[in-house]
Amino acid sequence: MLSRTADNLFWLARYVERAENTARILDAANRLAAMPIAYAGESNEWESAVAATGTLGLFKSLGREATGESVVDFLAFSADNPSSIRSCLERARVNARTVRTALTSEMWEAINGAWLGLRDFNRLGDRVRLNAFLTYVKEASLRFDGSAYRTMLRNDAYFFSGLGSFIERADNTARILDVKYHLLLPEQESVGGGLDFFQWSSILRSVSANTAYHWVYRESVKPWLVADLLVLNEQLPRSLSACYGRICEFLDELSLAYGRQGPAQRVARSTRNRLQNATLEDVFQGGLHEFLTEFIGENSRLGQAITDQYLA
Amino acid sequence: MVVAFDEMGSSGDSCRPGYEVLKRWLESTPPDLLTTRRAEAELLFRRIGITFNVYGDEAGEERLIPFDIIPRILTKKEWAVLARGLEQRVKALNAFLADIYSKGEILRAGHVPEDLIYRNPYYRPEMAGLKLAHDIYVMIAGIDIVRVDPDTFYVLEDNARTPSGVSYMLENREVMMRLFPDLFAEQRIAPVENYPDALLATLKSVAPRSASSDPTVALLTPGPYNSAFYEHSFLADKLGIELVEGRDLLVRDNVVYMRTTEGPKRVDVLYRRLDDDFLDPLTFRPDSALGVPGLMSAYRAGNITLSNAVGTGVADDKAVYSYMPEIVRFYLGEEPLLQNVPTWRCREPDALKYVLDHLPEMVVKEVAGSGGYGMLIGPTADKKTIAEFAAKLAANPDDFIAQPTLALSTSPTFVDSGVAPRHVDLRPFVLTGGDKVRIVPGGLTRVALKAGSLVVNSSQGGGTKDTWVLDA
C-alpha cells in the first residue's frame, strides 16, 4: 500500500485514540473538581489534566490560567491546541477523507459522523453538557474502534491503524500515570489518606479500570498497585505491557506479509521484553517517574522507527 | 420565447417513445411519495458523502449536487445514433491531436488556422514530435450533448482534458435502483455499472510497450481540496488502483515509482486528474507542489503513459471546436454524424460584427473557459451587462466565440412546485483504448433547476439526474 495511505491510517487511529483519552482525562478532572474543597487540597486538578495530555507548555505559552472553563475550552475545543478533542477529530476526519478508499464504509461513517456531530457542541453551558460531550467523544471512538475491528480485512491497513491506536494508548497511559503520580503526592499528605484515595481512583476511572482493579487486587486503592496494573498487568487492555503485546503482534504480521523485518520490529520487541521481565520492585526502585519517562521516549522512538521503515 | 422540445412530451396526452412506463408511473404516484423519495435520495447521497467543493465558498466547503429523481430516457435507437457519432468524433479528435503534434497537415492544408493552434495556451511545445504509445491522446473524453428537437443532437463542447462527472453517473444509477426497483423491473434499462471495468481495461491497453502484461495503473489527484476529489477516490476505489498524490511518486532513471510500505513500486499508466500546468515543476509551473519532478522526462522516454496525454487541452478550445466538422472530414473522410452548434468565431471580423449587432440573442463564451464561468447569456442579461461584455469582446475578439441561444430540450423534473420541465444536457463518456473504443450507454444528465435557466453546470447551481438508455 502507499506509504502515505499507511501514514494516514496510522495517524487517523492515533487522533481518534487521543481524542478519547483527552475526554477521559477531562472527565476525571471534572469529577475531582467536584469534590468537597477539603479533599481537593492544594493541587490543581485542572492544571494536572492539561499536564497529563502533554500540552502544559503550550497552555502556559498561551498565557492561560488553569480554571475549569479555560481547561475545558483548551482541551476540548481550542483550535490553538493541536491535541484538543476538536482538533483531533478534525484531523482524523481529514485523514479519513484522504484515504477513504482504504477504510470500510462503517469506519468512514463513524469518523464522518463524529465530525458532523461536533457542531452540536460548540460551547458548553454547564457540566451536564460537558458530560454529554465527553460521553459523545468516547462513544465516537468506540464506534470507530469497533467498526475497524469488525469490518476491516486483516491486512496491512488494519495493522497500521492498530499500531497507531496502541502506540497512542501506551503513550497516554504512561503520561496519565506519570503526571498524576507527580502531582498527587504532596509531601504532607499521607499515602492512603482521603485525598489520595479519590485521586488514585480518578486515575483508574480515567482509564476505565476501576472495576478491573478490584477484580485483580481485591483491596483498597494503593498507588503502587495502580502502577502495577497500568504498567505491567497484561490482562488490562490499556496497560503498557498489554499495548506492547498487541504492537509486537501487528509488527510481526507486517513483517510476515512483507517478508522482511526491520528496526521497528527490533525496537518494539526490546521494549516488550523489558516490560515482561520487570517487577514492580524494579520499577519503583529506579523511580516510577524515571521509568515512565524512559518508556515515553522509547515509545516515541518506536513511532519514528515505524515511520522510517514504512510510512516515509 | 420558443417553447422547448420536451423529452417526454409534456403537452397533452402525447408521450414520446421510451417514456410510457415513466409517464404512467408519474401520473399514478402521489406527490408525497416523490417528496419522500427525494428526501431519501438526499440522505443516501449525504451518507455516502458524494460531495463537491466550491471554490471560494468558505461557508459550505463540501456541497451536495442536487439530484433529481426523475430519470431522463433515451431509446435504443436514439442512443445508437449518438454512440456512432461520439465514436467518430473522438476518433477525429485523436487524429487531430496526433497531427498537430507531428506534421501539422491539417494546418498546412489550410483547414484550421495555424495561430489558433500554436498560440493556444493549451498547446504544449514539449509534446511536438513525441511518439505516444498507441498514438492515443484522449483516452477519456466527455462530450457535452444538447438536443433541440426529436432528431437533432448538437455537440456543445468537447472535454478532452480531464472530464469529470462519471461518478455521478454511477451513483445516480445506484440510488435510483435502490429507490425505484419497480421501475427497473418493468423495463430493460442498459446497465452502466461496467464503466469502471471498461475504464481499467482502456487504461491497461495503453500501457507503454515496456510494461509487463499486467501493467500497474494509478490515479493521480491534486488532493482532497480539489473540487472533484470525491470522484477521484471513488474511481480509484472502483478500479482497485492506488489513488496517488504527486508526493507519492518519484522518478528515478526516467522511471516512475510510487512510494509504498514495501518500497518503491513501478507505475506504468497514470490516470491523471491534474492539469498539465501542475504535472511536473521541472517542465511546467515551477511552483507546483502537486506534481512530480521528472515526470515529463519519464513520459518522453516512453516509460509511462499519461491519460489523457499532455497537451490535449487544445481540443477543448471553443474556437478549435468550431472547426470540428472540417476536422472530421479531413481525417476520416466522412461527414460528421453529430452536428456542432452554429458558431461565430469572433476572431473573424464579419462574425464579430454580426455578434456585436445581435448580442441580446446570443450566448458568448470564452474560448478557453469552462464550468460556465465568464459567459454571456444574451437573452437573460441586462443592458448594462451586455454593454460591458460588448466592450470586452471588442477588445479581445480572439478570446470569444458566440452561438445562438438554443432551445435546449427539457425533461420532466421534480421541483418544489411539482413536476415541471427543465432544460437538460448530456455528457456521455467515450473511452478510447489501444484495443477498441468503449462507450457505456448513458452518461451524466445535468439539469438546470431554475425555471427557464439554460445553465446546467454544478458550479452554477445545476443538478443531475439518472440517464436511462432503454435496451429494448
TrEMBL record, chain A:
Pfam families: Alpha-E (PF04168)
Domain called DUF403: residue spans: 1-311
Source domain of life: Bacteria
Name listed for the protein in its UniProt record: Alpha-E superfamily protein
Biological classification of the source: Bacteria, Pseudomonadati, Pseudomonadota, Alphaproteobacteria, Hyphomicrobiales
Automatic annotation (TrEMBL), chain B:
Organism name: Kaistia geumhonensis
SUPFAM superfamilies linked: Glutathione synthetase ATP-binding domain-like
Organism superkingdom: Bacteria
Pfam families named in the record: CP_ATPgrasp_2 (PF14403)
Protein known as: Circularly permuted ATP-grasp superfamily protein
InterPro entries tied to this protein: ATP-dep_Glu-Cys_Ligase-2, CP_ATPgrasp_2, UCP005522
Domain Circularly permuted ATP-grasp type: 71-448
